[in-house]
Sequence to fold (121 residues):
Amino acid sequence: MKNGKKNWVFCDGDLPPAGDNPNFAGHEALMITNVSKKDAKITIKVLFEDKAPYDKITLDLGAERTTCLRLDGPIGKEQYQIPFGQYALHVISNVPVCACFGRLDVRQTNMAYYSLAGYGF
Fold:
């Protein structure tokens, strides 16, 4: 990968419950870093198992800036709330960006946090 990609896909979205510990709320997050010297116009498409995709989430990300979107709350200019259940994300940018996805699952006493890079093209 040289200096980011314009498309990223994350296939394993499934929001965990927040849990009972106020210090560690279960959640998923999408981190996007604009490695370009130009501002990025980003669209996020949410794909579902059992219904049509939602493709109207937009955000602006300044040149050489980064953002972390908590996916358990409203995201984008539209403040879209991803529903609980299985989903996937397709991140589309007008300039190359880097993206990764993370999940904090607190359903067990030995909490698990992991992040992964998506498929970039």
